[in-house]
Design a protein that fits this description.
Strand order of the largest sheet of chain A: 2-1-6-5
CATH superfamily of one domain in chain A: Phosphoribosyl-AMP cyclohydrolase
CATH topology of one domain in chain A: Ubiquitin-like (UB roll)
Radius of gyration of chain A: 16 Å
Oligomer: homodimer
Helix content of chain A: 10-25%
Strand content of chain A: 25-35%
Order of helices and strands of chain A: HEEHEEEEE
Largest interface: A-B, 36 and 35 residues
Largest sheet of chain A: 4 strands, mixed
Chain lengths: 136, 136
């Protein structure tokens, strides 16, 4: 580091606005994709967390096509069970999710996406996380 | 710190063994319980995270009875779809989960449990989290 250069920002204190909206596509192997198990409706649950602090933002469903599109484009794409169609998160709301890492669980029947959340948050109510209500 | 004494462990590197195994039951309101929506099989997905760092540990399913038992007893109880029976996490493995907070999402169709994880971890493989494999 050059003397007199600006201090390196502490990553843990970084603001929650995205520092970069660039997509970082992920290239899965065929073996990884084949490990994913879909339910009788052809869907797999996908948990979405914030890449900065692991906060769970939402849970939605993916079909195989939306998983592949998510990894290829670096933005989350889900399957809407109510509308029976694929939807790309944020196209309407602006609350896009930029995928920074993606995982599949031990059984291959649940996905975990670590994202950079753009906009207000992940929830359609405007909340940062869909899990804003506690029992008790 | 006394010279020559062992260095104080960095809290971030502290062992993940629980500091207290006491259950902290949660008393939900009838309205909160009524908000939860179960699928056609009578089940709702439940995401489990570590209460210290929000790491996603696992995802499993609950029927209404296992949700109520989880909140009342302060330990996670799930519904096994393969065995078609209720199971209390850790009774066999010792990897019990002590619930510290519980949430339901905006649509009421997904649960989030924040737990103190006992033992090696949440995964039957011995891993701390079931999501130990990344795409790419």
């Amino acid at each position: 580091m050059t003397i007199g250069a600006p201090a390196t920002p502490d990553a843990s204190a970084a603001p929650r606005t995205p520092t970069s909206l660039a997509a970082t596509p992920i290239a899965p192997t065929a073996e990884q994709l084949a490990t994913v198990k879909y339910n009788e409706a052809g869907l797999v649950p996908a948990i979405v967390v914030d890449h900065t602090d692991n906060q769970v933002l939402m849970m939605a469903w993916m079909d195989e096509g939306s998983l592949i599109e998510t990894l290829e484009t670096g933005r989350t794409v889900f399957w809407s069970r109510s509308r029976q169609e694929r939807w790309r998160k944020g196209d309407t709301s602006g609350d896009r999710q930029w995928v920074r890492a993606a995982y599949y669980d031990c059984d291959g029947d649940t996905l975990l996406l670590s994202v950079e959340q753009e906009g207000q948050g992940a929830c359609h109510t405007g909340a940062r996380s869909c899990f804003y209500r506690a029992f008790g």
